[in-house]
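re the bet — no i am not wrong, look at it urself. input seq straight from the record:
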Amino acid sequence: MLPRKARKGSSRPTVSRPELLVDGSDSDFRRLVEGLFPLLSIHTAIRDGYASLVGLPGPQYTILLCIRNLERTGSVNITMVANALRQSGSFITAETNALEKKGLVAKARGEADRRKVTISLTRQGAELLDSIATLRQRVNDVQFHSLSREEFRMLVPLVERLVRSGEQALALLDYLKSHEQAA
């Protein structure tokens, strides 16, 4: 018997939650997931473009921005940056060491506990970010011009929730992979 030719759209849905299906189809879900890849790619290219203007690799530029944003609420340390960027502490340490050598980040040991290290932007680091602030504003306005105020206010918490659930999904995938290999 010859195998039947697969019909278009007849594959098993990639999700089972009714909230993610439209008329039993996962096509809108797949559109969402497939749309996230080019969005991330475009946003990364924009970030790398900003970074190249100030002579930094993209990750170091992102770390500078993160430090600046976190400084608005108080002192900053490696763990805070690592958590905010979902990166390892060792990666953030290595990159902040490089930024410190460039004079863009300062590190200070705590007086009460010498093991605690705070990091902050130097004046040179702040000036570097400020040097492209107008350009960033113009580009960001274009990148996100399609959002209404209401959509923007909905999108921010939605993305934060998707990051958290994405981390849970990644942990589940890692768990299932490790247990499947052991079986």
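see?? The chain has two domains: 25-146, 148-183. told u. also The two ends are 34 Å apart (CA to CA). so pay up
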